[in-house]
Amino acid sequence: MKLILNIAWTHVSTRVRQTLVGMAGVSMGVGFTIMMAGLMQGSQLDFLRQLVDTMPHITIEDERRSVPTQPAEQEYGAVQMADIANVGKRPGIKYPESVMNSLRSWIPGDVAPSAKTTAIINHGGARIGITLTGIDPRREVQVSKLASQMREGKIDDLSRAPNGIIMGEALAEKLGVKAGDTVLLIGGQGIQLNSTVAGLYRSGMKRVDESQIYSLMGPAQVMMGQNGVVNQLRLRLNDPMLAQKVAAQVEAQTGYKSVSWQEANADLLSSFTVRDFIVLTVMGAMLLTSSFATYNIISTITHEKRQDIAIMKSLGMREYAVRRIFIIEAAIIGIVGILFGWILGYLLCYGWSKITIFSPLTGTTTPISIYYSAMHYVVVGAISLLCCAGAAYFPARKATRVHPVEIIRGAS
Amino acid sequence: MTEVALQAVDLVRRIEGDVSHTLVNGIDLAVNKGEFVAITGPSGSGKSSLLYLLGLLDAPSEGEVMICGQPTSKLSESERADVRLTKCGFVFQFHFLLPEFTSLDNVLLPMRAAGVMAEGEMRKRGLALLDSLGLAEHANKRPNQLSGGQRQRVAIARALANRPEIIVADEPTGALDTKSTEQVFSILRDIADNGQTVIVVTHDPALAARADRRVHIVDGKIAEITERGGAELVSPSIAPCEISHA
Q1: Is residue A261 part of a domain?
Q2: Domain range holding B155?
Q3: CA-CA 20 to 30 A from B3: which of A293, A320, B100, B218?
């Protein structure tokens, strides 16, 4: 092995320019792949963080996923039910306090009630459809980041202003209102309510900021025409990634439809999967392309060293031992290239993280999100090394298969 | 009874193709231990092909090569490589030294490949070999810093590194001047005198005459075997060499 290492090292160290070009190729591939991985995962996680912060992790709604089994179905197996009317049934979750107390005993997080309805907000001739969510300010801080998203006023101001509401900055801008102004809310049953803008928030998601307003439970229940109703329980978990599992357990326990944030954004998350696939393909192609430099160098060396290969074989070195020389040469180029690639990747990520960009959606200037992960370095390094070894194997195999007599005769 | 170092039995090397071509055609030859045999013949007569077969660099189409009594036709390529490493030493017309390595490193190459000796022991032997061939002061020079004769002597030292039973040399003086040719041949003669078997392919009749036996090849067959001093042992295509199945 020492001999093989010695020959391999001699080959790469006596071809400084070729070796450096090969190492630079690997370094570029590794560095830019790490940068891409950090950028893509950083932006994705940043988006998810905003998404998770903006909405409850689990929403329990006053509806069932499937129509409850009808008495006739219980009696007769062959009965088929169609167009079942929901006659005279009061909306809302039954005994919400009991349900919440029960959930609090086992869920890893907290739960708060809300009354959700749709309304039209009318101001200065503008009529915009919105979602009105009635909340309990004391409990709201346990389940949402609304308090920290406030740009003007506080959540508690809902109690101080007459029929106070909190709306997103984007909606306020659209309507031309500011904190303290009065707007008219019109409910589905024609109920009208003059409300005072108690505060403004910014979630970072324009879709939410333009359509979601908050009030106390009372005004929202008035707009629904259902006093005292709670039609939504919102849960916030210590670990948002547990939402799907907990939602399934909650649904099994309560019977109410429980929607995790993942389910609510399934289409978005599936688009991430497609994006991940595309990014992985591009990164794989980058690493593969960088290994072509290694292939080129090993091909050149094996071609130049045909006589040496022949003489080593004629002296009695086995074919695989000679082949190993060139694979080790590629490994030397690969390992040094990867080490420099790691440094390059880190510096590129660091450089990107210092760049700030203006988002016209949120109206803010934020630094580019980079996700630093040791796994990126390990995986990219391992794949690159594998590509280098593969790139060396084929020219080395071809070269060492040559019969030494052919070369010796040709040289004599 | 004289011990046979190498023996060829009905050796045939044929190149198959659109037109089949026979390089070596039914050669029987036994070379004794410590014997110096010169193979001569016109260009294209098959003498180098015979040498490659005897040194296990090439595999025969038919027949058998026995080295120290061991048949080799059934050996795998790896096993043949092992035999070459331990039992045969090669010297070619072109020195074939590894250009990035020093003379000493080139001599150490077969020893390192065999991996039998310790590094210190290998270096000691390598230096001793170079010294014995008058190259002590050139041990740390690379091939491009040596003359043609010096390079060929380094190649001989490399061939001797693993103390092989047989030294196989293919026109080792073909690219050398008169003085270097004389030096190289003297060295090969000394090697044989010290008990190692030497088989040399040469065009030079004067040098061939200094071998213990001269085997003249024509059209892939032994045309004549002459002992040192001129006694003709064999006349066209008859080779009653001593065959010992050790």
Answers
A1: no
A2: 35-51+76-233
A3: B218
Q: Residue B78 and residue A319: Cβ atoms within 8 Å? A: yes
- In DSSP notation, A363-395 reads TEEEEPP----HHHHHHHHHHHHHHHHHHHHHH
What does the block give as tokens for A23?
């190492």
Q: Which residues contact A249 (CB under 8 A, 6 or more apart)?
A: none
Nearest to B168 by CA among B19, B16, B5, B4: B5
In a domain, B224, yes or no: yes
CB of A315 less than 8 A from some CB of B? yes
Contacts of A11 in chain B (CB under 8 A): 100
Span A181-209, pLDDT tens digits: 999 999 878 889 999 999 999 887 788 89
Taking an 8 Å cut-off on Cβ atoms, the answer to whether A405 and B96 are in contact is no
Domain count, chain A: 2
Question: What residue numbers bound the domain in which A332 lies?
Answer: 2-52+268-411
Give the minimum alpha-carbon distance from B11 to chain A in angstroms, rounded to a whole number.
17
Exposure string for A30-64, b = 16+ CB within 10 A, e = fewer: bbbbbbbbbbbbbebebebebbbbbbbbbbbbbee
Pick from B125, B51, B127, B118: nearest CA to B88: B51
Measured torsion, CA atoms of residues A84, A85, A91, A95, in degrees rounded to the nearest 10:
-50
Q: Name which of B78, B82, B98 is nearest A308 (Cβ-Cβ).
A: B98
List the structure tokens of A102: 């029960």
A76 in the same domain as A22: no
Task: Report chain A's terminal Cα–Cα distance, integer Å.
Answer: 30
B100/A contact by beta carbon, under 8 A: yes
- Positive or negative CA dihedral for A187, A190, A191, A195? positive
Instruction: Count helices and strands (H / E) in chain B.
Output: 7, 11
- Contacts of residue B115 in chain A, CB cutoff 8 Å? 3
Q: Quick one: tokens of A62? A: 């006053």
Helices (H), A161-216: 169-175, 206-211
ipTM of the complex: 0.81
pLDDT tens, B66-93?
A: 998 889 988 888 898 899 998 999 988 8
Residue A213 pLDDT: 94
Q: Verify whether the Cβ–Cβ distance B109 to A315 is below 8 Å.
A: yes
